[in-house]
Specification:
Number of strands: 10
Distance between the termini: 16 Å
Strand content: 15-25%
Oligomer: single chain
Number of domains: 2
Shape: elongated
Keywords: Membrane, Transmembrane, Transmembrane helix
Length: 236
């Protein structure tokens, strides 16, 4: 019997409770706790990505230092460059040039730091070293019953059960993400549910290998909108 999520925040579901994880605070992505609970994959630091992000961070910091040392010169340059403008709003914006440069610099610093902590350490298959690459992301309208039904259909590995998919809707509470390790013919399918993206609950990761992986890619090429060959249209 399909379960449901109660309004109190507790969970009643046919999906094993030990597989449900709540998104954690900190520099993690939505599915990091689920990946961490999945055997055979781990985060590994990528040297090229790390070096690139570190160089970018240093350049941005140097730029902020130079801006601080020459703030009056930059402000005067902005004022002189815009004072002849025919539009008053451009002339008025001259005083905002320096704050905007600082804001852009701080944003880039934050982006580089996050990249070093997260993106430069991609999830990788432990045995082969193949890096997982994102293939698909979609949100769907539906309650917890839909969430569990979708998980069961995808876990079967049978495209006649999970195609065609409903239309995607950004307002939906059920999220679907797919990553692939193409060299290993392996796909990882993550499902999350919740009305608030920061408090969503993730189901256990689905791993599709070999023929099931090939079938998933074929369904993706059809955008999950067409039923598989010899399959009747699914009812969601």
């Amino acid at each position: 019997m399909l379960g449901s999520f109660s309004t109190s925040g507790t969970v009643s579901t046919s999906i094993p409770r030990t597989g449900l994880v709540t998104r954690q605070d900190g520099p993690v992505t939505l599915f990091d706790p689920t990946f961490a609970a999945t055997p055979g994959i781990e985060r590994r630091r990528s040297t090229p990505h790390t070096v690139g992000a570190a160089v970018g961070l240093v350049l941005v910091l140097v730029g902020l230092v130079l801006l601080s040392q020459n703030v009056l010169t930059v402000a005067e340059w902005a004022r002189d460059g815009l004072q002849d403008s025919s539009r008053a709003r451009y002339r008025a914006g001259a005083g905002l040039m320096v704050p905007m440069l600082y804001l852009a610099g701080f944003f880039l610093v934050g982006y580089c730091i996050r990249y070093l902590l997260v993106d430069a350490r991609p999830w990788t298959r432990t045995d082969t070293g193949t890096r997982l690459r994102s293939l698909y992301e979609g949100w769907y309208l539906g309650d917890a019953r839909f969430f569990e039904d979708l998980h069961a259909r995808l876990a079967s590995g049978d495209p006649t059960r999970y195609t065609p998919m409903p239309e995607r809707d950004k307002r939906g509470h059920s999220g679907l993400r797919i990553w692939t390790a193409a060299a290993d013919r392996t796909a990882y399918v993550g499902l999350t549910w919740g009305p608030r993206r920061k408090t969503t609950l993730n189901a256990p990761m689905i791993v599709l290998v070999g023929p099931a992986y090939d079938a998933l890619l074929a369904a993706k090429r059809a955008r999950f909108e067409k039923p598989s060959r010899d399959a009747e249209r699914s009812r969601w």
